[in-house]
Amino acid sequence: MIGWEDVFKVLSAMAPLYFALVLGYGSVKWWKIFSTEQCDAINKLVCYFTLPLFTFEFTSHIDPFHLNFPFIAADAISKLVIVLVLAFWAKCSSKGSYCWSITSFSLSTLTNALVIGVPLAKVMYGQMAVDLVVQGSVIQAIIWLTMLLFVLELRRTGLNLVASRESSSSDDDGHGKATQMVGEGGKDVEGGAMEVEERRSNSHKPSFKLLMKKVWLKLVANPNSYACIIGLAWAFVAKRWHIEMPDIMEGSILIMSKAGIGTAMFNMGIFMALQEKLIACGATLTIIGMVLKFIAGPAAMAIGSIAMGLHGDVLRVAIIQAAVPQSITSFIYAKEYGLHPEVFSTAVIFGAIISLPILVAYYAALEFIVH
């Protein structure tokens, strides 16, 4: 059973996150150091430099020849279950939405496993659990975060093309405003304006070929698209032929990658300071986000784990790691692409605060249920 010393270890791992968060919040709210434009520039620094180098660094150190494929397959099945449910909801419900399907998928499946999941797994189940969580994080970076990046870029590029065509065919101020709302940088808008734009876009829909060409060019220019793939490729080479990365190269990567999580949390603090309310998305969306994170995600993982025949501690780790708080990367992407960043910031911050008692409750319950 987890003791107070183990709880302290987990809290010690989480505390630095909130130190960076408070510094970011204070730099704007109290000390007025950064302007709005400078805050956008900080988000781009995190999105295009520190985050991809952090992703490359942790991916390049795994052992790809000793992966737990049933565990990885269970994780994939759980995410496909969520995708199918959201696709059904988007198509069959009057409240269904492509944008909210993307957000709901991220909330229920993408976890902050490296920062919170690893120390928690170590105190609960030891090194075996740590290895599984790291493997899950690498697969999340390679497959699921890359897919998230693709659908976000597809959405923004499509809306920009539609807005561009509308503005060129009409002299309306409303169309000009639409162009501004979906412009480069992905500013967040209120009142579901993005949803309105998507429903108005049918008559101005760009060709699939043009759309995919533009999306491809955007993704090629985005280091997040291939940082984890290059890292995994290096891991294969390094483990197969026992090659070590040259010191000059490793040092160059580490000097930026070590700032990845810190600058991401600092950036989130800045975002919070720019909002009118501390819980920017409101109580209702906060509750929905917590339900998706701590109930829907683990439930889907339980389905995937049972389907793959996982048992014992591996099954327990699979379910608990699915309940780990929200991925910080998902907030960075949401802010960059203007898709519900207020929901993700609340999910990361509030989720991390309430996660420890929830995860301990899962741990205790699984000790009795899983054999």
UniProtKB/TrEMBL annotation:
InterPro entries linked to this entry: Auxin_eff_plant (IPR014024), Auxin_Efflux_Carrier (IPR051107), Mem_transp_PIN-like (IPR004776)
Record flagged with keyword Transport: yes
Chief localization: membrane
Subcellular location: Membrane
TM stretches of this protein: 7-28, 69-90, 97-120, 132-152, 215-236, 248-266, 278-308, 346-365
GO BP terms: auxin polar transport; auxin-activated signaling pathway
Stretches assigned to coiled coil: none
Keywords: Auxin signaling pathway, Membrane, Transmembrane, Transmembrane helix, Transport
An annotated Gene Ontology molecular function: auxin efflux transmembrane transporter activity
Stretches the record annotates as Disordered: 165-188
Keyword presence, Transport: yes
Highest rank taxon of the organism: Eukaryota
Membrane topology: Multi-pass membrane protein
GO CC aspect terms: endoplasmic reticulum; plasma membrane
Family statement drawn from the similarity comment of this UniProt entry: Belongs to the auxin efflux carrier (TC 2.A.69.1) family.
Role: May act as a component of the auxin efflux carrier.
PANTHER family on file: AUXIN EFFLUX CARRIER COMPONENT 1B-RELATED, AUXIN EFFLUX CARRIER COMPONENT 5
Protein name: Auxin efflux carrier component
Organism, scientific name: Cucurbita moschata (Winter crookneck squash)
The organism's taxonomic lineage, starting at the top: Eukaryota, Viridiplantae, Streptophyta, Embryophyta, Tracheophyta
